[in-house]
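Bug #77: duplicate submission created two jobs. Keeping one. Sequence:
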Amino acid sequence: MTSEPAVDVRGLRKSYGDLTVLDGVDLTVAPGTVTALLGPNGAGKTTVVGILSTLLALDGGTARVAGADVVTQADAVRARIGVTGQVSAVDDLLTGVENLRLMTSLHHLGRRAGRERVAELLAQFGLTDAARKPVSTWSGGMRRKLDLAMTLVGSPSVVFLDEPTTGLDPRSRRTLWDEVRALVAGGTTVLLTTQYLEEADHLADRVAVLDRGRIVAEGTPDELKSAHDAGSLDDVFLRLTEPPPAPPTSKEVA
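Kept job's structure:
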């Protein structure tokens, strides 16, 4: 008997006026795995995360997260997920401890339980020494780790990471990768959106390539590379992307 998918999307559609952003997306994420949603800017990755986290309404299809429907059981979905967006949610004017305490209050943890959870997360992400300094003095990598720690305050079973390493230096990026691996080793399910092909190759159990609102390829990194006779996901991605339009002729420019 197979377990229920952590994320189950069927025929997902979303439009803004005449612009179709998602055009019948199907996606399944197994519990305790990392699935990377790979694609260029404008492919619809963030829209998928917005719908799955109940921040955006879908126009068609169905979506279930941790066994709950995002439309009819939105509160249940929110109770079971964590979201780290493209823009950091940390407050620069607060210290690391204060940022985390704010999240424990939002999750209705008691004072003692909240203090224990804050201390646990600070230690887990190696932020204890800087915890009482304003976040404005922290490095980009430390801020991103705090952002992820805040996402985990409520011990979510499913975590959505929307391009979490954008702008980080290589060392900080790999540190965050280690944190994601540790999450999954502990049983958490991760849906990761990224433009970094190396990131998908190193982290993901499965990769779905989204382009112009449709899934154009899906499989394990090795399956995708084998199917397209590629040495890396960079080669696969390039082959799945249409070539750029030819430059205009002198007559067209005139």
